[in-house]
Design goal:
Blueprint lengths: L11 E5 L5 E5 L14 E3 L4 E2 L2 H10 L4 H5 L2 E4 L10 H28 L6 H14 L9 H10 L1 H15 L7 E2 L1 H11 L6 H8 L7 E2 H7 L5
Antiparallel strand pairs: 1-2, 3-4, 3-5, 6-7
Helix pairs in contact: 3-4, 3-5, 3-6, 5-6, 8-9
Protein name: SPRL1 protein
GO cellular component, one term: extracellular space
InterPro entries: EF-hand-dom_pair (IPR011992), EF_Hand_1_Ca_BS (IPR018247), Fol_N (IPR003645), Follistatin/Osteonectin_EGF (IPR015369), Kazal_dom (IPR002350), Kazal_dom_sf (IPR036058), Osteonectin_CS (IPR001999), SPARC/Testican_Ca-bd-dom (IPR019577)
Length: 225
Amino acid sequence: DPCRSFHCKRGKVCHVDKQGKPSCICQDPAACPSTKDYEHVCGTDNKTYEGTCQLFGTKCQLEGTKMGRQLHLNYVGSCKYIPHCTDYEVDQFPLRMRDWLKNILMQYYERDLDTSGFLTEKQRSKVKKIYQNDKRLVAGNHTVELLLHDFEKNYHMYVYPVHWQFHQLDQYPVDRLLTHSELAPLRASLVPMEHCITRFFQECDGDQDKLIALKEWCHCFGIKE
């Protein structure tokens, strides 16, 4: 099968011509496999697609047009009303986000105690200190005041989770810059719960070059130079 080792980007599928030569053609959105409701996604055109196959197939068919350039995955789930993000909310956003990143790493650490493989040895030793220190914080929802106090008092605990998340996203290619596509997995999963995330990332891009450098990312999260 000539298509077996022939890679096509999202929205395209491998097609073999009469001479047996493989090439990439746009995925027919109507031919995408049926999905469950929880697999639906919302596009930046505010339309609900049955899944990412349908969304990226549609984007591929619009290639070369303004609509095609503007169509991206907005968030996971059917389209719904997302409230406007206020200045106050976007100011508080890094507090919640830093806490969330730290909690993800601690969950990985706990899982790693039972089944290794979630973290590397180097990551495990860094997260161990954060994990031990974190037991001071009250479990459950943390107030803004508590998060701010904890950030100021235990600043060093928050630096690694912020760096870790950047490098988890910086994959295609690894160049210390985050593109819209690299940010998409984080954005898409968080928009329904954190409606300020889109504005937050837009404002992180200080030079407006549509790329978020490591320096810009850290500055957004309040990490010192």
